[in-house]
Amino acid sequence: QKEVEQNSGPLSVPEGAIASLNCTYSDRVSQSFFWYRQYSGKSPELIMSIYSNGDKEDGRFTAQLNKASQYVSLLIRDSQPSDSATYLCAIEFMRFGAGTRLTVKP
Amino acid sequence: GAGVSQSPRYKVAKRGQDVALRCDPISGHVSLFWYQQALGQGPEFLTYFQNEAQLDKSGLPSDRFFAERPEGSVSTLKIQRTQQEDSAVYLCASSLGLAGGLGTDTQYFGPGTRLTVL
C-alpha cells in the first residue's frame, strides 16, 4: 500500500460544477496536510493547508480532514476551465500522492 | 528575487557525466527540500536541510546523489555518473519554518530543473 493514495482520475467535470478530489494516507501520526495544484510543465503551487479535523474554506476551495479515517479531500466549487490541472495531495513535507488530473469542460 | 529559483532550467547530460543543480531558496527560509518528479508522478522526496544541516537524506536513491547547503542558503544537488533512470524534473522547495512546524511549514517550489540523460 502506498503511503499516500489519490483517486486515480482523470476527473472531468463541466464548468460550474463541484469537483471532488480525495486522498488517503497510511501514517496515523501525520499532522500537516496540503493540496497543491500543478499545471502541465510547471511546479506545484500551494492551494490549501489543513492541520486539524474538519473543514477549511478559502474562496471556492474547501479542504476536509478526517484523521480518524485518514483521509483528506479538496472540493472545488463553481469549477472553471482554469482549474484544469493536476492536483497533488501531500502529507507532511515528504509524502506526495501521484496526483489527480482534473479537466473542467466549458 | 521573491521566489525560489533553480538553475539550469534544462540540462542534457550524456550517460556517465556528472551534473550539478543549483537552488536559491527564498531569503530567510530555514528549510530546504529536494524532490525528483518523474513524468506523470508526484514529487518524490530526496533530502531535507534545516539551515546548513542535512537532517534527512533517506530519499536519495543511491550514493551517486549528493546534496549540500554549506552556508544555509544556496543548495546544490550533485549527481555523479548519471544514468538514464536519473532523467526527471528536480524540484527544490523552501519553507520559512522547520519541517513539521505547523503553519510555518508551507513549501514554496522553484520552477525545477529538467534533466535528460542520453
Give an account of the 3D structure:
The complex is a heterodimer of chains A (106) and B (118). Chain A has 106 residues and is an all-beta fold. Chain A is built from no helices and eleven strands. Chain A has strands spanning 4-6, 11-14, 19-25, 33-38, 45-50, 54-58, 61-66, 71-76, 85-91, 95-96, 100-105. In chain A, the strands form two sheets. In chain A, strands 2, 4, 5, 9, 10 and 11 form a six-stranded mixed sheet that branches. Chain A has a five-stranded antiparallel sheet with strand order 1-3-8-7-6, with no helix packed on it. In chain A, a hairpin with a 2-residue loop joins β6 and β7 (61-66). The relative contact order of chain A is 0.35. Chain B has 118 residues and is mainly beta. Chain B contains no helices and eleven strands. Chain B has strands spanning 5-7, 10-13, 19-24, 31-37, 44-50, 53-56, 65-68, 75-79, 88-95, 108-109, 113-117. In chain B, the strands form two sheets. In chain B, strands 2, 4, 5, 6, 9, 10 and 11 form a seven-stranded mixed sheet that branches. In chain B, strands 1-3-8-7 form a four-stranded antiparallel sheet, with no helix packed on it. Chain A binds chain B through residues 4, 31-32, 34, 42-46, 49, 51, 88, 90, 92-99, and chain B through 31, 33, 35, 40-45, 48, 56, 59, 91, 95, 99-100, 102-103, 105-112.
